[in-house]
Design a protein that fits this description.
TIM Barrel, 8-stranded parallel sheet, 8 strands, 39% helix, globular
């Protein structure tokens, strides 16, 4: 077993234990392996150990890995901020975008999604702590954005994503409540498809699972330490 395979197995065991501790349905929490700043060979090793979904922060880095790993059955998620001049490349190549935070970006992604591909799966990034340094829409802006994305034909709205301050477990519960409030108040929003709460990383996945997360984004616990300044994982 490779180091990556062993670490991946350990993370899966943590998720399984967290599901049991929270009395969650086994297998209800998906693992997104955050591969940003790690080479395609690391993604290949994780895939060989059974991992399919990978998260990238940077569009060009993600596209380069897709090209190198062409032929593998991989699911690619963009989890970093997205600028308008990158939307076409993302719409043409990624499977998910978890960082949609304004209507302009959503509209461009829908317009540029190729007709032969399935709808682009999207989560709306919420700046749950209202931190000026972080991307994401505010809670107050969220209902308007939800309604706008629901109307776009080439997008499938899947849920919400957040990156709370370290240690702010209350924010995890707040995002879960926000999802329920949206389901109760917005016509056309269905629990069967608006099913994703993307929250929890290497250091707080247990708290996130307890709060209701359905997808945890884990990088360093699988691939090892990131270069200095690379951000949390």
């Amino acid at each position: 077993m490779t180091d990556i395979a062993a670490r991946l197995a350990a993370v899966r065991a943590r998720i399984d234990q967290a599901e049991k501790a929270a009395d969650r349905t086994p297998g209800g929490v998906r693992l997104l392996a955050v591969s940003k700043l790690h080479p395609a060979s690391a993604v290949r090793a994780a895939h060989a150990a059974g991992q399919q979904a990978f998260g990238e922060n940077y569009v060009q880095e993600g596209l380069a890995k897709m090209a190198e790993l062409d032929g593998l059955a991989l699911e690619w998620h963009l989890i970093g901020p997205l600028q308008s001049n990158k939307t076409r490349e993302v719409a043409e190549h990624f499977d998910w975008v978890q960082s949609v935070d304004r209507e302009k970006i959503a509209r461009r992604l829908s317009d540029q999604r190729p007709a032969q591909l399935p709808p682009l799966q999207v989560c709306l990034q919420v700046n749950i702590d209202d931190e000026a340094s972080k991307a994401g829409c505010s809670l107050a802006e969220l209902p308007v954005l939800v309604r706008a994305v629901l109307a776009l034909p080439r997008l499938q709205l899947r849920g919400l994503m957040c990156i709370p301050r370290a240690g702010n477990t209350a924010a995890l519960a707040a995002l879960a409540k926000t999802r329920q409030d949206l389901l109760a108040s917005i016509p056309g929003l269905e629990a069967a498809t608006f099913d994703t709460l993307s929250m929890g990383m290497s250091d707080d996945l247990e708290a996130a699972v307890a709060a209701g997360s359905t997808m945890v984004r884990v990088g360093s616990a699988i691939f090892g330490a990131r270069p200095a300044g690379a951000g949390p994982a």
